[in-house]
């Protein structure tokens, strides 16, 4: 229940990957996936500000109410979109999101930069791998981590 005397602006960028970091999200259906995830976020009473990604991972910027638990929202996004992808037969075999995610908070003044960053994922990843990007996020936000507990990385030569 929302208290009418509570005012907040919470902006969270969520990043998560396809299981095994396989490049399964194809351009032929990625926009449909983004619309589907937008619906999940909206139905949970939150505001999806930006969404984009690569064939192996997604970035979602969400305006959140303090009553929403990030872990519950991400669990619902992953569970529902996973089922939707499999029900629509978009991949051969079974699609799954990898366990875990990153969640990073931003101030209102940085939103244009974050939105631009998310919108330009394809261009950005011509220069930097997802692993490099993700570790940069963890370091920038001063998050202690052990590489053993990060996503499964598929190294390409």
What labels describe this entry?
157 residues; alpha+beta; 4-stranded antiparallel beta sheet; 5 helices; 18% strand; globular
Query: Strand arrangement, largest sheet?
Result: 2-3-1-4
| Number of strand elements | 4
What's the overall average pLDDT, rounded? 90
Main β-sheet, in a few words? 4 strands, antiparallel
Order of helices and strands: EHEEHEHHH
Distance between the termini: 51 Å
Instruction: Give the helix level as a range of percent.
Output: 25-40%
Question: What is the strand and helix layout of this fold?
Answer:
Elements: E1 10-17, H1 30-43, E2 47-54, E3 57-64, H2 70-87, E4 102-106, H3 111-119, H4 121-124, H5 130-140
Protein architecture, described:
The protein is of the alpha+beta class and 157 residues long. The chain contains five helices and four strands. The longest helix is centred in the middle third of the chain and has 18 residues, at 70-87. The protein starts with 9 loop residues before the first strand and ends in a 17-residue tail after the last helix. The relative contact order is 0.21.
């Amino acid at each position: 229940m929302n208290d009418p005397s509570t005012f907040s602006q919470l902006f969270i960028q969520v990043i998560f990957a396809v299981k095994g970091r396989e490049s399964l999200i194809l351009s032929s259906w990625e926009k449909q996936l983004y619309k589907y995830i937008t619906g999940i976020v909206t139905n949970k009473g939150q505001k999806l500000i930006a969404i984009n990604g690569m064939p192996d991972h997604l970035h979602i910027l969400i305006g959140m109410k303090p009553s929403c638990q990030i872990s519950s929202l991400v669990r619902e996004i992953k569970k529902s979109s996973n089922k939707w992808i499999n029900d629509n037969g978009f991949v051969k075999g079974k699609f799954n999101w990898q366990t875990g995610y990153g969640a990073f908070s931003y101030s209102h003044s940085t939103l244009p930069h974050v939105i631009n960053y998310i919108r330009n994922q394809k261009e950005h990843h011509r220069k930097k791998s997802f692993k490099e990007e993700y570790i940069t996020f963890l370091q920038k936000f001063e998050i202690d981590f052990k590489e053993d507990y990060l996503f499964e990385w598929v190294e390409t030569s």
